[in-house]
Amino acid sequence: MAIFDIDLDTLRQRTSMKWTRFAPDVLPMWVAEMDVVPSPGVTRALQHAVEIGDLGYPGYESLPRAFRAFAADTWGLSLTQRQVMPCADVVSGMAVLVEAFTDPGSSIVVNPPIYPPFRSSGGVGGRALVEAAMTPEGRLDLEALAEAFALPEVTGYLLCNPHNPHGTVHTADELAAVAQLARQHQVLVISDEIHGALVAPGVTFTSYLAVPGSESGFVVTSASKAFNLAALKAGLLIAGSELVDALWQLPYEVRAGSSHLGLLLQAAGLDEDRDWLAQLNAEIAANKVLLASLLPEVGLSYTPSDGTYLAWVDAAPLGFEDAATSLRERGKVAFNPGTDYAASHGQWIRINLATSPEIIREAVRRIGHARA
Ligand SMILES: Cc1ncc(COP(=O)(O)O)c(C=O)c1O
Fold first, then answer.
1. Mean of pLDDT over the chain
2. Which of 57, 115, 239, 344 has the fewest CB atoms found within 10 Å of its own CB?
3. Using an 8 Å Cβ cutoff, are 157 and 143 in contact?
4. Residue 50 class from Cβ within 10 Å (0-12 exposed, 13-18 middle, 19+ buried)?
5. Which residues lie below 8 Å from residue 141, measured CB to CB, with a gap of 6+?
6. Alpha-carbon distance 81 to 128, whole Å?
7. Where would I find the beta strands (DSSP E) of 24-106?
């Protein structure tokens, strides 16, 4: 049975953000929640925790241990125990690092179009943002980054690896170039790798901490995206080898923001559900191919990306100023508006493809109705 084989009536019983933000006649294809039931190991771990009343304060060790094993087995990335510390979630973890390790009044570099909370995390504590836009092909613009890093006020850089919204998986060469620039200009790199486990079959994900020169950077990550566990708070701060002591100087509250069940269930997924994850990635890749084959029927186009379950689509051919609002009002289908990712991208939409092929077909039909 397909992982995304889940019907709309069941989904509509959900009370999470995706299913309650808009009226019931709107098909929600926006926020990054997946239309899946929990993976088998996660389900067993949750049932067991409830059966034995394992609902106390976090033990803290489960997720760091499971993530280190997963990173070693999957990416050949070896991390020591002291490099990895729990935190509440990725967005607040990035803000904690910016606040703790960059100067107040300095500036932080981001790459628009970019997942919106990068602006709030980077701008934390009054830091200004410097934009080094992605290239038109959706890749890191290393020249723009070099220029931005050379600015005297720049002290930090929030990297999205893989990149949301494009789904670009950065190469080891690109990341090594970033690390070299960061060293040269003494810029702290904070790499958000929450989508790292969500790459198409055959595609290699490279963690920032795997490339030479990255020893003075951080990764912030979580298995909540891969196993759809945003309901239960847990994430990880991972320090490059030169920052391990600095990591453990962060206040205890940082760890205490994680929940016991969040840590436990993400660990169960990483330990026990790797086959499920492989199938999930295959189904996401197939959904991207399906979207690419359907969009020309409504005058749009899309090239499948290597990472994430998100599709970044130029909806300008539809002729709407604000594509997402018009599609929602006229077609009853909700996508994330491009302006959330870059002010200039009102005609773009981000489509969440972590759903059934039938729902993707229905979404494209609704784009067609909106256009008519
Ligand atoms: C790139 C990226 N970072 C962070 C998050 C949110 O992570 P968290 O819920 O752990 O704060 C998302 C959610 O979609 C995301 O796409």
1. 97
2. 57
3. no
4. exposed
5. 111, 132, 133, 134, 135
6. 34
7. 27-28, 84-87
In the chain, where do the E strands start and end? 27-28, 84-87, 107-110, 128-131, 154-160, 188-192, 218-221, 235-239, 310-314, 333-334, 336-337, 348-352
Q: Is the CB of 192 under 6 A from ligand 1?
A: yes
Any ligand 1 atom below 6 A from CB of 230: yes
The pLDDT of residue 1? 87
| Tokens at 226, concatenated | 């891969």
What is the predicted pLDDT for the residue at 126? 83
Residue with tokens 């067993």: 44
pTM above 0.90, yes or no: yes
Q: Is the CA virtual torsion 274, 275, 281, 283 positive or negative?
A: negative
φ, ψ of residue 269 to 5 degrees: the values are -60, -50
- pLDDT of 31-88, one tens digit each? 999 999 999 999 999 999 999 999 999 999 999 999 999 999 999 999 999 999 999 9
Residue with tokens 């009853």: 332
134 lines ligand 1 (CB under 6 A): no
Residues 303-318 as b or e (16 or more Cβ within 10 Å = b): ebbbbbbbbbbebbeb
Give dist(CA 77, CA 97) in Å, integer. Answer: 22
**Residue showing tokens 């020169």:** 213
Contact between residue 22 and residue 295 where contact means Cβ atoms under 8 Å apart:
no
For ligand 1, what atom is nearest to the CA of residue 93? 11
Domains in the chain, start-ordered, CATH in brackets?
Answer: 8-31+274-371 (3.90.1150.10), 43-272 (3.40.640.10)
By residue count, the chain amounts to: 372
- Residues 245-300: pLDDT tens digits? 999 999 999 999 999 999 999 999 999 999 999 999 999 999 999 999 999 999 99
Cis omega before residue 162 (within 30°)?
yes
User: From the CB of 88, is ligand 1 less than 6 Å away?
Assistant: no
Helices and strands in the chain, H and E counts: 14, 12
The rounded Å distance from CA 364 to ligand 1 centre is: 26
Q: Which residue has the tokens 């080094």?
A: 132
